[in-house]
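Practice record 12: protein with flavin mononucleotide.
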Amino acid sequence: MKQQTFIIAITGASGSIYGLRLISALMTLPVRLYVLVSKSGRQVAAHETDFKSGLLVDYLKQKDIVSHKMSELLEIDPADSFASIASGSFQHSGMVISPCSMNTLAAISTGITNNLIHRSADVCLKEKRPLILLPRETPLSLIHLENMTRLAKAGAVIMPPSPGFYTRPATIDDLVDTIVARVLDHLNLDNDLSVRWGN
Ligand SMILES: Cc1cc2nc3c(=O)[nH]c(=O)nc-3n(C[C@H](O)[C@H](O)[C@H](O)COP(=O)(O)O)c2cc1C
């Protein structure tokens, strides 16, 4: 299996677990991940999960995630505007923002690139590379909805993390995996994280 490269960002919306489970699932595959966690993303994750501080690789080790021998995780500071992923010349197979805050959603939908997360997403849209956003807010204002519409028109996949219950999820991890499985499907990565309807 050829090693593929993806960009994964965690921003400061509730639901950091969706980003952390996605990274854990991806690391079991031969992938190179460029991971960005916004300042608010780190704060919310520390509040909601046991990813308190430090490096994500250490967190994965502590969670006993068995990474594929051909997987790599490169954590990048969202303030580093000189990183390779800021350029359209950087080749990758897609970017996921999970969860995506309304702040980050608004920035991308208006083309404002205040940090490397916004810039990388902006580059995905201009280069026609897959961009998957998992926006989390409720209820949604007209501004949120219009930002999502604009991004969908520009080519992004808007995938609100609203899990299905028809698989009878027994735990929070099962529930989260119903969403992570859909993200992996959209990245064209084989997975059996969640039961498929009809199987
Ligand atoms: C505990 C907590 C939960 C939050 N949940 C959400 C949320 O679900 N959706 C959202 O858009 N913002 C949420 N926020 C607010 C964002 O963190 C805030 O808008 C921040 O500026 C986002 O920055 P970022 O887009 O750079 O990560 C939350 C903040 C806190 C402290």
